[in-house]
Fold this protein.
Amino acid sequence: RYFHFCKLPGRVMGIRLLRLTSVVIIVLLLVAGALTALLPTVKDDKMPNSRREPKTQSQSALDSFTLIMQTYNRTDLLLKLLNHYQAIPHLHKVIVVWNNIGEKIPEEMWNSLGPHPVPVVFKVQAVNRMRNRLQNFPELETKAVLMMDDDTLVSAHDLAFAFSVWQQFPEHIVGFVPRKHISTPSGVYSYGSFELQNPGFGNGDQYSMVLIGAAFFHSGYLDDFQRQPEAVYTLIDETQNCDDIAMNFLVAKHTGKPSGVFVKPVDIRNLEKDTNSGYSGMWHRAEHLLQRSYCVNKLVNIYDGMPLKYSNIMISQFGFPNYANHKTKM
Amino acid sequence: RYFHFCKLPGRVMGIRLLRLTSVVIIVLLLVAGALTALLPTVKDDKMPNSRREPKTQSQSALDSFTLIMQTYNRTDLLLKLLNHYQAIPHLHKVIVVWNNIGEKIPEEMWNSLGPHPVPVVFKVQAVNRMRNRLQNFPELETKAVLMMDDDTLVSAHDLAFAFSVWQQFPEHIVGFVPRKHISTPSGVYSYGSFELQNPGFGNGDQYSMVLIGAAFFHSGYLDDFQRQPEAVYTLIDETQNCDDIAMNFLVAKHTGKPSGVFVKPVDIRNLEKDTNSGYSGMWHRAEHLLQRSYCVNKLVNIYDGMPLKYSNIMISQFGFPNYANHKTKM
């Protein structure tokens, strides 16, 4: 029958058939390819430390940042905040520093509520230390770190703007919480905020630190932090405090300039009161502020000098949220 | 009698007399010296271009700035403003660019109301040109220039702060009046302020120019300005406008970054209405803004591209005027 078919008017009919068959096959292949691309991605139960990377990890390491959030005894807040922060523009990855010693990470729950916009890595800690968050995590791929306390919510708008500011000042700690030290005639320093006297350099107030619990900074400083005098680690471990002051000393020494750049937040919230854990954060301890003054003086000893410098630059976003927020009555 | 005197009890009396005489002479000389120092300095009638320098010109050229103020047909405002500006901290000298062709500078009055805190130089111009203020004046000794329109008053507090900001951003135009250009689908640019649409880079507005009529910039840019294409001068002379837009193009090309840094003024005032001259400034002309859009497009032709870049950084002074102006409700 085949031969009979082939004997139809000349070769022409045979070639036409060949063409038709080829076309049909190609079309079928294309359709199959399209269907494959449209298939939903398969979920898996790998360990959190090697979370499945989303198909498109297109954020370049230069144009995105890693959120590092240390957590202790406030897993409910942590999870609330993760829902918020996982969706911030330019976020590359989240590293949760798990200070809940002996307690299981909420891996199952986390997986069951996937997929998630970015990878989230839970780093289980051996000891509950304040400075655990200042490790040079191997999972850290970006130049920029966003460090947040586990009770602080900053709006995506503020974060997107502050990240763009950090990109213009990459050697500084760019963040939302300014603090200062002041000198006294005795030479002993004191730590505080704007309720303290102004340092007296012209009009207005000055700040000499930006706290890292709500700030962007260069990941290189985590590397630098590993090479500090032992006495710095001892100080932080003794007080379970002052890691942020130590970082400001480090950055100021490194740059010879004010360590921080203050960006005035539009929407920053402390969620402490919202926790069910009953735990309300280290800064409520009676000795907290006195400790911080103590730390300033200890660090001056350790570093043999006061490297912190003052700044009075306050940065806001032009035309946001109010498009005329810079309007000047002349 | 002399000998008789000398024959008093021995040499002793003679020596005592000598001592006494010496002391009297020395005292008289000291008194004379003191009186000379207290004499009022003698006024002179030298030409304004070589104003007598005040006795102590201690402001270093690095830590002070020169005010350049061009004036046309508003001498009453000029004199009001000179009283204000001559007392600004860190001011080195004032250069008044006298565009009142054929009219005598108020030299006599100025001298009769001396002494003045800083030298003020009146530069008589041959032709009334907008770009006269952009000359490379030989009297200019400082790295920083403060350029002010002759109807604009900015408080000393704002100026002191903006000067400190300029010192941190010396390659930028640091000033109080932000403006922008926008693209349109046709490729034709338009000029304006915040009433125009946002350029569409994320939230909020952007600015791409800071006007030089109330701004600090590096004196080197005056030098650069002398070396621009002839078409730029022609444009400015034809429109009697746009010298500031041209400067922003120049600076943006030079740095590859946004030309300006906007400092939000606390107290900036337009004194136009206060003039007795009846003259109310170029920006009231009907075609003023259309001219500026025209200039943007012309300059893009001349420079073969759009060098202006957008910024949304708005700088304010931390803790001034309100010491808690950065207080955040958490």
User: Anything to note?
Assistant: The radius of gyration of chain B is 28 Å.
